[in-house]
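Hi D.,

Good news: the full-assembly prediction came through. Inputs first.
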Amino acid sequence: GQQVMQIPQYQHVQEGEDFTTYCNSSTTLSNIQWYKQRPGGHPVFLIQLVKSGEVKKQKRLTFQFGEAKKNSSLHITATQTTDVGTYFCAGEGGSNYKLTFGKGTLLTVNP
Amino acid sequence: NAGVTQTPKFRILKIGQSMTLQCTQDMNHNYMYWYRQDPGMGLKLIYYSVGAGITDKGEVPNGYNVSRSTTEDFPLRLELAAPSQTSVYFCASSGGGAGNTIYFGEGSWLTVV
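Then the structure:
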């Protein structure tokens, strides 16, 4: 079945440093979604990427979808303490439209 | 603007007890899901449903049952609770089809002692 691997599992940064999390799928995806879960909270949708090579930005967050539609990344520029949380990628592929979540990257930011 | 509502928020169960986690959504979504998240871990799909009367197993269905008698409701039943079922449970829904985003409930913290 489809597998989505996400690295790193944890990342600790100083406030102001950049952060990147990577997502790789075992199969070609029709789209990939990113979610953020604050500590003690629930996952909240951030963005969806559909096109090969697509790049989208949300303020300090930059999302990329690979040319082969099998990998994706989320980059945060100049992290802030409000960025703390777990970032999940979720890939959609196949005919059943079921999302497969990566295990997430927990980001902690030292002020 | 309720979205996905799940109850209870917190519950302590004794080993061998049973309980039902309730979930309802008001977005008229066809797809509903139950995930569990163990501390510091990712989301594991327990069961999902693509419409009323239709349910299917996810990755970790053992020890759980679901039903989907209406579009709005998707309760999760725990039979004979075990310590391994201590987790946070998230109900979620989506419109279904390609590219639909998933909306999560706020979670139910369950401890089995």
